[in-house]
Write a structure and sequence with these properties.
Length: 418
C-alpha cells in the first residue's frame, strides 16, 4: 500500500514537472515566433516602401512584388519543410534556417547595389526559401505536441510572438532607416534571428515526448492516428480551411503592409505611421491570446467569425474615417484578425487531422495563406497606383473578410480519430 502511495506521489510530481516544462516551451516558442521571417521581413516591409522609392525611384507596386516573391517561396517551401519535420529531428532544420535567412536579410543592400531591382527580388526569393524551416509551422507543431486541453491558449500565447516581434521590429527598422538609411534597417533586422533565434533553437526548444503523463499533453492517439495528406486532400474541410487562409491573408496582409504609406499619404510622419503598426501588432497579441483562450471553450470556427468581423470593421473604418484617432482604432481592430491567423489555422489542422502528419498538412494550408500574402500587398499597390487611392483595395479586403466568415460557418464539428 505504501508503495502504491509513493508511486502516486511520484506520478503527481512528474506530471507537475512536465506541465512546467510545457509552459516553458510556450515562452521559448513565443520568442522564436517573434524572430521568424514573418515579423522580421514581411511585417516591417511598409517601413521601406517609401524609403526605397525615394532612394532608388521604385514605385510601390515594384517594391511590394518582393513580398509576393518571398511569400510564394515561403509557401512552396513550407510543405517540404513540414514533411521533414514530421520525419526527422527538428533542431538542425530550425537552426540552419535561422542562420541562412538572417544572412540573406543582411545581404539585401549588397544585392541591390550589384543587381538593382533583380537582385532585390532574388534575395527575397532566398529569404522565403531559407526561412521556411524557422517559421510558425515549427512552433505550432511543438506546442500542439505539448498541449491538448489548453492547446488553443498555448498556441495563442506562442503565436503572439509574431505580433510582438512585429511590434518591436517595425519601430526598430524605422529608427535605423530614419537615422542611418535603408541599408542599416536591413542590417539590423538580419541580426535578430541570428543573435536571438539560434540560441533558443540550439539549447532551449524541445519536442514533447509522445507519452509523458501530463494531463495537458497531447494524447498518444494524436501522434499515431489521424489523417494523412492524401486523405486530407479529399476532405472538404481542408479546402474550406485553405480558401479561408488565402482570403484572410489577401485582406489582412495587404492592408497591414500598406498601412504605413497609407497613413503617411494622410499627412502622418513616419514615426507616427509606424506607431499605428505597433498598435496593430499590440492588439494582434491581445487577439491571439484571447482567441486561443476562446478556442478551448467555444467551437473555433464560430469564434473566428466574431474575430474577423472586427477586422472587417477595421477595414471599413480605414476607408471612411480619416482622423488620426480613428486610424489607430481601426489599426487595433485590424490587429485582432492579424493575431488570429496562424494560430487559428494551426489549431484547426491539429483538431481536424491530428499530429502525425501535421507538418505536411499544415504546410499546404500555410502555402495557401502565403499565396494570399503574396497577392494582397501587390493588389493594394496596384490599386493605389491605378486609382491614386487605397479605397478600392480596402473595399476588396472587406469583401474577402466577409467571405472568410462565411467559410468558417460551413466548417464541420471536430471528430475523434479511430
Amino acid at each position: 500500500m505504501e508503495d502504491i502511495f509513493d508511486a502516486q506521489i511520484e506520478g503527481d510530481v512528474l506530471r507537475d514537472a512536465t506541465q512546467v516544462r510545457a509552459w516553458l516551451m510556450v515562452i521559448v516558442a513565443t520568442v522564436g515566433a517573434g524572430v521568424c521571417s514573418t515579423p522580421i521581413v514581411l511585417m516591417t516591409s511598409g517601413v521601406f516602401i517609401r524609403a526605397l522609392g525615394v532612394a532608388l525611384g521604385w514605385d510601390r507596386a515594384q517594391v511590394t512584388v518582393s513580398l509576393s516573391i518571398c511569400a510564394l517561396a515561403l509557401g512552396l517551401a513550407t510543405p517540404v519543410t513540414g514533411a521533414l519535420i514530421d520525419r526527422f529531428r527538428l533542431r538542425p532544420i530550425l537552426v540552419g534556417s535561422l542562420l541562412a535567412y538572417g544572412l540573406a536579410v543582411m545581404a539585401l543592400p549588397l544585392f541591390i547595389r550589384k543587381w538593382g531591382l533583380s537582385g532585390f527580388y532574388f534575395d527575397f526569393l532566398l529569404i522565403g526559401v531559407f526561412s521556411a524551416g524557422s517559421n510558425t509551422v515549427v512552433y505550432l507543431r511543438v506546442i500542439s505536441g505539448w498541449f491538448d486541453r489548453s492547446r488553443g491558449l498555448a498556441l495563442g500565447i506562442s503565436m503572439a510572438g509574431v505580433a510582438l516581434g512585429g511590434a518591436i521590429a517595425a519601430p526598430f527598422a524605422a529608427l535605423l532607416t530614419q537615422r542611418f538609411g535603408w541599408s542599416a534597417g536591413y542590417y539590423g533586422l538580419g541580426t535578430i534571428p541570428i543573435v536571438l533565434g539560434i540560441p533558443l533553437g540550439m539549447f532551449l526548444l524541445r519536442e514533447a515526448p509522445v507519452a509523458h503523463g501530463s494531463q495537458e499533453s497531447a494524447r498518444v492517439d494524436d501522434f499515431v492516428a489521424g489523417i494523412n495528406t492524401s486523405q486530407a486532400a479529399r476532405s472538404k474541410t481542408l479546402w474550406l480551411i485553405g480558401v479561408a487562409a488565402f482570403l484572410m491573408a489577401v485582406a489582412i496582409n495587404g492592408a497591414q503592409t500598406h498601412l504605413v504609406p497609407m497613413l503617411m499619404d494622410r499627412g502622418l510622419t513616419l514615426p507616427s505611421a509606424a506607431l499605428a503598426t505597433t498598435v496593430l501588432a499590440t492588439f494582434a497579441v491581445v487577439g491571439r491570446v484571447a482567441a486561443g483562450y476562446v478556442f478551448d471553450r467555444v467551437f473555433a470556427p464560430l469564434a473566428a467569425i466574431g474575430i474577423f468581423m472586427l477586422s472587417c470593421a477595421g477595414c471599413v473604418g480605414l476607408l471612411l474615417l480619416p482622423s488620426p484617432e480613428a486610424v489607430y482604432v481601426c489599426a487595433a481592430l485590424l490587429g485582432f484578425g492579424a493575431g488570429a491567423e496562424s494560430d487559428l489555422l494551426g489549431y484547426l489542422v491539429s483538431r481536424y487531422f491530428g499530429l502525425k502528419h501535421f507538418g505536411e498538412i499544415f504546410g499546404w494550408v500555410f502555402a495557401s495563406f502565403m499565396i494570399g500574402s503574396a497577392i494582397g500587398p501587390v493588389a493594394f499597390g496596384i490599386g493605389f497606383d491605378r486609382f491614386k487611392s487605397y479605397a478600392w483595395p480596402l473595399i476588396g479586403a472587406t469583401i474577402a473578410l466577409l467571405l472568410v466568415c462565411a467559410l468558417c460557418a460551413m466548417m464541420p464539428r471536430f471528430r475523434k480519430f479511430e
